[in-house]
Write the structure tokens for this entry.
Amino acid sequence: MAAPMETAPLSKDLDTNHEEGEQLESEELDDTPGPAEPRVRDTPMDMSFEAGVNTIAFHPSRDILAAGDVDGDVFVYSYSCVEYENKELWSSGHHLKSCRDVAFSSDGQQLFTVSKDKSIHILNVEEGKLVKRITKAHESALNRLLLIDENLFATGDDSGMLKVWDLRRGTAFMEMKNHEEYISDMVIDQNKKMLLTASGDGTMGVFNIKRRKFELLSEYQNGDLTSISIMKRGRKVACGSSEGTIYLFNWNGFGATSDRFAIKAESIDCMLPITDSIVCTGSMDGIIRAVSILPNRVIGTVGQHPGEPIEQLAKSRDGRFLASCAHDQKVKFWDASNIGSIVVDVYRKRKKNRQLTALSKKAFGGADDFFADLKEDREESKEKEVEQEDEEDSDSDDSDSD
């Protein structure tokens, strides 16, 4: 006789399978959206301020940017390509008037600032504490700052006075007034010997800080000289002017220009070397242009603050980003990673009235340009209007012939 069948375990298995099926079904039906991953951009988001920003500087080793505004406040931000991840780390309101220039020390531990209130401040980068203050550093409002090494730095003011300071002594060991107008920009050679200045009087000044002596002034140029850069491995010096012209000098031939060319901009208010042969310029029209030096040519546009004069440009430590500040109370970031790889054809000339090439996605005409579609629509509408006018003209000609 066969043994009776055991049914209890089978029912348990069926119940278990049924419960697992319900669980899987409930999981499949649960379509509640999880937290969205933050968007990663090509460049950090724009930074907005309550007052116009005069000056910006990138940290030499961290993703940090400093900015000084017309109210005398100094801000330090961390920046990131992750959306909404820019964060204010600290701010300082020690200056009584407009902060005109900022610069990080080479080790990134201190931030130097100069102001219209004639003072120099040195701040601790980590906490924003004031480490040193030099009040009444100049008799006139300070305009420009240049860090030379870990001990020396130079300052220029609105009257044309140049001072070179030694932090170990806490005083200036070199004071020279050879310009008739404000010092707009300064640069020093690789040997830390020759310091060059650009001035609103239209001249370039040459100073030997090793010998503590003034060398010479260049010939007067048209308009203010607003910016200065050493190019071509130290063989050339480029000066931007308020007339929209770049003047070139040979090294050791500082008295007279060797070449000059206009970039078809109303002015050149600031200039920053990107490579040994390419500079970026900021102008009163709000456009940032990449310009080749020898061959002298405007390559294209990197970005823009539409209709707002650009005050200063800065390059990140890795050369990936270009930052700009303008009268629109914003600091904007641009992708500069591809500018260094541009090869300029010596024999090819840009066609007249041709729109400049967009060198970044956010530049006018670039992939992310909000107005690109509007421009295309405008061009199409203009073409239609021209066609309609031609048709009307042809109709009127026919009627006249009758």
